[in-house]
Design brief:
The structure is a single chain. The protein is α/β, with parallel strands linked by helices. The protein has one domain (4-241): TIM Barrel, CATH 3.20.20.70. It contains 11 helices and 12 strands. It has helices at 34-43, 54-59, 65-71, 87-95, 105-109, 111-121, 154-163, 185-194, 209-217, 227-230, 236-241, and strands spanning 4-12, 15-20, 23-30, 48-53, 77-81, 100-103, 126-129, 133-135, 138-140, 168-172, 199-203, 222-225. The strands form 2 sheets. It has an 8-stranded parallel β-barrel with strand order 1-4-5-6-7-10-11-12, surrounded by 5 helices. Strands 8-9 form a two-stranded antiparallel ribbon. The longest helix has 11 residues, at 111-121. It is globular, with a radius of gyration of 16 Å. It starts with a strand and ends with a helix. 47% of the residues are buried. The mean pLDDT is 94.
């Protein structure tokens, strides 16, 4: 089983940033130009790029669309989201050259609407993002850039989306995101049993190439790399070789 290595760029006010555990007050801003960084990932052998519009995720709507459009011109296949709420947002991203639209809050709040989009455009054009936090012995699904509590759980929605045409699922253990603490492998083993028809992308906490190998062994079909690449803990070439 091949595992796709997917470098990530999180955008806030057009800049490359990372948040710790999704906390907008705990932001690290990097000097890299987003398009130049993406081009360097393409030159190193990446095929995909994961892009999050953090401004859009928090406020709703596509705030950094111009930057996302520039990233889609770098030769990488882009999956992007953050703030997608209505079908017009889906069309704007697809028209900007995005290959897969990432759906987070709307996928949690309005599965029926997302199911219509899946039926219309096909499961390959979307990545369902069910980022999760362990609360009261359940994997809960906060929304709006992880700032608002919701009532639905991962165990409810992951198999639901598998049954309604989704093909790709991105799942982050929020407590590990940006913390360089390693993946929550138990979460990905759980997802492999819960929704075996979904190609799961692991995200949040990778610190070494050993974490990439471990995620693959746990059933992940993709690994999203953010802070570890930005801070040079290993190179993209080393990640691809893993």
């Amino acid at each position: 089983m091949n595992t796709e290595i997917i470098p990530a760029i999180d955008l806030r006010a057009g800049r490359v940033v990372r948040l710790a555990q999704g906390d907008y007050a705990r932001q690290t801003t990097y000097p890299d130009d987003p398009a130049a960084l993406a081009a360097s990932y393409a030159a190193a052998g990446a095929r995909w790029l994961h892009v999050v519009d953090l401004d859009g995720a928090h406020a709703g709507g596509l705030v950094n669309l111009t930057v996302i459009e520039a990233l889609a011109r770098t030769g990488l296949r882009v999956q992007a989201g953050g703030g997608v709420r209505v079908v017009a947002d889906v069309h704007r991203l697809l028209d900007a050259g995005v290959e897969r639209v990432v759906l987070g809050s709307v996928a949690i709040r309005d599965p029926a609407r997302v199911a219509r989009w899946l039926e219309r455009h096909g499961g390959e054009r979307f990545t369902i993002a069910l980022d999760t936090r362990w609360i009261d012995d359940r994997w809960m699904l906060p929304s709006a850039g992880w700032t608002q509590a919701e009532g639905r759980t991962l165990d409810e929605l992951a198999p639901w989306y598998a049954a309604h045409g989704a093909r790709h699922l991105l799942c982050t253990d929020i407590e590990r995101d940006g913390m360089l603490a390693g993946f929550n492998l138990a979460l990905y083993r759980h997802l492999a049993k819960l929704a075996p028809g979904l190609a799961v992308q692991a995200s949040g906490g990778v610190r070494s190439v050993d974490d990439i190998r471990a995620a693959q062994a746990a059933g992940a079909r993709g690994v999203v790399l953010g802070r570890a690449l930005l801070e040079g803990r290993f190179t993209l070439a080393e990640a691809l070789a893993a």
